[in-house]
């Protein structure tokens, strides 16, 4: 699927506005600068949280590396297997509340790499028995604000924790990011609906309902205003994970990464 420069949530100005707005608001409530000793870093997450890091990203912009600096995530060697749930764009099964026991026992992991270089990742070397896709959710990080499915590491981990009922772990991770509140704001209604499901099949059915409703709302808006928003880009189920233009890469260079 091609890129859609009209994606309304994702205009550069809007992203800048949200970033400034969110940062400003959270700072008032004691949000910390990166590098400061964090109180949540001292709070324990009592299940393993891990990542394979392919070192594609600028350490200052990378959410996985930030979690590592804060002591909230452990790095795995390439080739090491992880028995818990691995959120991965190459998975075929969607995460659901039914995965709670696996996470409680063996934890949650993520693959830290660049979306632009996803095809360079040797996914066969980090295979896990419990790989999972995330259902339709929107990124709120400054790099991919408004894009469905294209979450960064902290968004992916927090969403999987929340969806499986580990609310405190989700908040501990996301609480370290100034734009974290925006992620909950734009995804809360979807996440609450996914949490009512029991199985992966039910989450997929719920996702299909949500997408149908959004399509319907878009059609109505289009009829009323002539606007053509597209909320369906980068859908892993439509095999479109790798599309990233040079222009995007330049934009990403300019942006602070989540
Ligand atoms: C491609 S990396 C990009 C990380 C980014 N550089 C950062 O600063 O966090 C994001 C990782 O989060 C997980 N992830 C993000 N969106 C996902 C989705 N829709 N389904 C499954 N996993 C996802 C995957 O492990 C993916 O490799």
UniProtKB/TrEMBL annotation:
Gene Ontology MF annotations: rRNA small subunit aminocarboxypropyltransferase activity; S-adenosyl-L-methionine binding
Known EC number: 2.5.1.157
Single biological process term from Gene Ontology: enzyme-directed rRNA pseudouridine synthesis
UniProt enzyme class: transferase
Stretches with biased composition (Acidic residues): 244-258
The keyword S-adenosyl-L-methionine is assigned to this record: yes
Gene Ontology cellular component terms for the protein in this record: cytoplasm; nucleus
RNase L inhibitor RLI-like possible metal-binding domain residues: 47-79
Domain 16S/18S rRNA aminocarboxypropyltransferase Tsr3 C-terminal: 85-210
UniProt keyword list: Cytoplasm, Nucleus, Ribosome biogenesis, rRNA processing, S-adenosyl-L-methionine, Transferase
Ranges where the record places region Disordered: 1-40, 219-258
Bias-annotated ranges (Basic and acidic residues): 19-32
Subcellular location: Cytoplasm; Nucleus
Keyword Protease: no
Main localization of the protein described in the UniProt heading: cytoplasm
Catalytic reaction equation(s): N(1)-methylpseudouridine(1191) in yeast 18S rRNA + S-adenosyl-L-methionine = N(1)-methyl-N(3)-[(3S)-3-amino-3-carboxypropyl]pseudouridine(1191) in yeast 18S rRNA + S-methyl-5'-thioadenosine + H(+); an N(1)-methylpseudouridine in rRNA + S-adenosyl-L-methionine = N(1)-methyl-N(3)-[(3S)-3-amino-3-carboxypropyl]pseudouridine in rRNA + S-methyl-5'-thioadenosine + H(+)
Compositionally biased region (Polar residues): 224-237
Family listed: Belongs to the TDD superfamily. TSR3 family.
Role played: Aminocarboxypropyltransferase that catalyzes the aminocarboxypropyl transfer on pseudouridine at position 1191 (Psi1191) in 18S rRNA. It constitutes the last step in biosynthesis of the hypermodified N1-methyl-N3-(3-amino-3-carboxypropyl) pseudouridine (m1acp3-Psi) conserved in eukaryotic 18S rRNA.
Name listed for the protein in its UniProt record: 18S rRNA aminocarboxypropyltransferase
Organism: Pisolithus tinctorius Marx 270
Gene: TSR3
């Amino acid at each position: 699927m091609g890129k859609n420069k009209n994606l309304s949530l994702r205009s550069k100005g809007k992203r800048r506005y949200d970033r400034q707005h969110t940062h400003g608001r959270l700072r008032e409530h004691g949000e910390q600068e990166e590098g400061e000793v964090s109180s949540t870093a001292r709070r324990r997450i009592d299940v393993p949280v891990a990542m394979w890091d392919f070192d594609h990203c600028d350490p200052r912009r990378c959410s996985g590396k930030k979690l590592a600096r804060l002591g909230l995530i452990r790095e795995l060697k390439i080739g090491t297997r992880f028995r818990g749930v691995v959120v991965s764009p190459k998975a075929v099964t969607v995460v659901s509340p039914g995965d709670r026991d696996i996470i409680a026992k063996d934890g949650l992991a993520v693959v830290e790499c660049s979306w632009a270089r996803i095809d360079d990742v040797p996914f066969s070397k980090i295979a896990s028995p419990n790989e999972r896709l995330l259902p339709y959710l929107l990124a709120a990080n400054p790099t991919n604000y408004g894009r469905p499915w294209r979450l960064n590491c902290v968004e992916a981990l927090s969403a999987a924790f929340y969806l499986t009922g580990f609310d405190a772990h989700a908040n501990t991770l996301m609480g370290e990011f100034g734009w974290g509140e925006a992620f909950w704001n734009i995804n809360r209604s979807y996440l609450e609906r996914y949490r009512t499901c029991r199985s992966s099949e039910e989450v997929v059915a719920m996702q299909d309902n949500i997408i149908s409703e959004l399509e319907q709302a878009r059609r109505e808006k289009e009829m009323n205003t002539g606007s053509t928003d597209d909320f369906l880009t980068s859908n892993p189920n439509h095999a479109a994970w790798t599309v990233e233009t040079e222009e995007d890469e330049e934009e990403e260079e300019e942006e602070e990464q989540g």
